[in-house]
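Reviewers of the previous submission asked for a worked example of the structure-prediction workflow described in the proposal, so we include one complete record here. The input consisted solely of the amino acid sequence. No template or homolog information was supplied to the procedure at any stage.
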Amino acid sequence: MPRLHTPPHERPKTIMEKCDGFTIVDVNISDKPDKDVNNMKDHRDINEDQNKNTKSPFTVIKIQRERGERDYIGFATLPEQVHRKSVKRGFDFTLMVVGESGLGKSTLINSLFLGDLYKNRKILDAQDRIEKTTSIEKKTMEIEERGVKLRLTIVDTPGFGDAINCEDSWRVCSAYIDEQFRQYFTDESGLNRRHMQDNRVHCCLYFVPPWAHSLRQVDLEMMKRLHRKVNIVVVIAKADSLTAAEVKRLKARILSDLEEHQIQVYQFPECDSDEDEEFKQQDRELKAAAPFAVVAADTVLEVGGRRVRGRQYPWGIVDVENPRHSDFTKLRTMLISTHMQDLKDVTQDVHYENFRAQCISQISQHAMRERGKLKRDSMGNNNEVVITDTDRLLLQKDEEIRRMQDMLTQMQEKLKASDKKHDSIIDV
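From that input alone, the workflow returned the following structure tokens.
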């Protein structure tokens, strides 16, 4: 007997009353029981009192359980799983500070992270600085805040800009950044990648002296060598020695020099449209404040019944956390609270990928040269060249690497174009 579909308005009311908490999805009349219904979850077979020995038709009604608030798939807890795993593993962040001695780099780092990383530092006299060369000094500290652990590495560059001849000061910094990329590339290409340690430099704070009217030649040369390898954040040191008008003029000249020499410093990402207005306003203030004019202090003073970090002068007290006195709080917000992960993402997706593409290209070219040399040695005087499948694969990989490099170049040009557009809007 063929199956007949019963319209919803003809379904028996008695069955609806028996199915409290369920929804009828199908009603069929057949001469045989429906075996598929017995194998389905959240379904029930409701049959009227029928004699199995007779040939009377079976009425099969498929009923599906109504889903309540407790019945859900569960993937909404993925962010919580990622959060628990990330907190358990901890976070890494490497910060490089570059600038000549006496600009308050150590004081700023201690003020940012509320620690003392330079207890036993020796201050060199003038005679020792004559032939002083740039060196690398790395310090690591473990910080925990509300159960979140951060492994902070500070890479200092003592001796930068202190010698009479500073034309090679950039070499040590550039070599160190490349070495960390190379070490990460080696670890990533190895067999055991479970305990990889990320020592790549995620951000470089470049300190500009307040007495300079713009970027000096040593500053420009250093940034040209580093801006494609690391996120550069320009900082005007000891801003309390400048008036508000002088700070504004110096910031404008620094931005003009960066644009003129095509130096790409760290670009703030655009806010998503779904962000709240408070976050958008904070993002606009951070973008407008760059380069940051900061004042740092290790001394805690009492002002108006509250304790603040500041500097005591005969004419008053400079509060480093007062936005009218310094951009210190904006720099701390950007570096730690809002853009630390973005600095790491840009390091991974742009700077490291560029380095990785160059390494793969060099390895492929070296392999091609070695293979061509072996072919020439084996062929002798035979001028016929045979291209194998391996050679074709290597050529395809080289072409893919070139496309990746072109894409990176286009991305950098777009970022630069968007930055120019943003600056023009601000000028208007």
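The domain at 89-338 is CATH 3.40.50.300 (Rossmann fold). We consider this example representative of the routine output the project will generate in years two and three.
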